[in-house]
Amino acid sequence: MPSAPAPAAAPDHLQWNEGGAELHARWQSENGAPPPRRVVVADDTLTADAAWRLACEGTAILWRGDFNNARQLLQAMGRRAQRKPGKAKGGAAKPITEVFHLHRQAQAQRARSLGMLLIPVEDDYRIPLRRAPDLGVACTEAYGPARGPFVVSLRELLGLVGAHEWRKKGVRVPALDGDIHPHYGVFSPVRGEYVDLVAQAPLPATTLAFDIGTGTGVLAALLARRGVERVVATDQDARALACAADNLGRLGLTGRVELLQADLYPPGRAPLVVCNPPWLPGKPSAAVEYAIYDPDSRMLRGFLDGLAAHLEPGGEGWLILSDLAEHLGLRSRETLLALFDAAGLKVLDRLDIRPRHGRAQDADDPLHAARAAELTSLWRLAPR
Description:
- By secondary structure, the protein is of the alpha/beta class.
- The protein has two domains: 13-165, no CATH class; 170-383, Vaccinia Virus protein VP39 (Rossmann fold, 3-Layer(aba) Sandwich).
- Helix content is 33%, strand content 24%.
- It is built from twelve helices and 17 strands.
- It has helices at residues 48-56, 67-81, 96-114, 136-143, 154-169, 193-200, 218-225, 238-250, 298-307, 324-327, 333-342, 368-373; strands at residues 13-18, 21-28, 38-42, 59-63, 117-121, 150-153, 171-173, 178-180, 208-212, 230-235, 257-261, 270-275, 280-281, 293-294, 311-322, 345-353, 376-383.
- A seven-stranded mixed beta sheet has the order 11-10-9-12-15-17-16, with helices on both faces. A six-stranded mixed beta sheet has the order 1-2-6-5-4-3. A two-stranded antiparallel sheet has the order 7-8.
- Strand 9, helix 7 (218-225) and strand 10 form a beta-alpha-beta unit.
- Residues 205-321 form the Methyltransferase small domain.
- Keywords: Methyltransferase, S-adenosyl-L-methionine, Transferase.
- Pfam families: MTS (PF05175).
- This is Methyltransferase small domain-containing protein.
């Protein structure tokens, strides 16, 4: 049965009752979710149906049983989250924008519910559960040096493991003829078509380029490989800059690319400025979604509004952007062109490419129609 809400605790601490005592621990959530107010302690006797019911009611489950059983329980809860209600007969198809928002709401609710299965972690990143693996390296890569015991959702913890494996294995980037190793919280270049566009576009100069919002550093590395003598790559996220530094070092390009922590532009002007902003206007619901969702198109607008002032005479700005937002009814082509015009920019050319990712061919995806029509474009822009 769900317990009563715990007494008020520090905003970053989880509090619960166990064995008649009030306990608390630091709460860890990369998505900034607040600590659950209701917590029950459970072990291997808890059924998946009971766990899913508690989670949907907003009650967190602090796990004291076997770690592998917790992982199996999370998988069983995930299967319950995927159950679809029966379709209404004779109803008209919903507009794609409404379908998108309903899809986002369902994703957020699923993430909240699955995030209710909690795991204790000790000071040295040891997990005090039977058959728990050693996740010290994965935790250190994501969180940094240990700062004391904490409680975290199993879902987040497994995300750290997945990120560690991606970082170790790397992502092959054919246009770069090399691998990119994404770090935790930094968006992986698994959709390689936008990289291909940057590989194909004619360079206006090879002396200097700015890469705005570098992320893993993949585009900065590609520009250097294409012969640009010096690249200044910016990002406001320290994790992204550390990831880019790692990748540039692996590729032997450290001396060609300067990394700078900045919100958008570095000082000065360049003959080429490249930016691959988040493609969808909207509010991220997770840290990694900042690479997908751009609240109020802030980064897009900031890049466009500052571009003319940061281009050398005769220079170009390359905007890499999917038109998925247009097919979802989130931003029209007319709105995008108006942003160009308001920033005093003209379009020199546009290179297009079709996406190759699996969801573009997945007819069961609720957003299939929009994904199937999607184009990714490299807009070559210049001051009017």
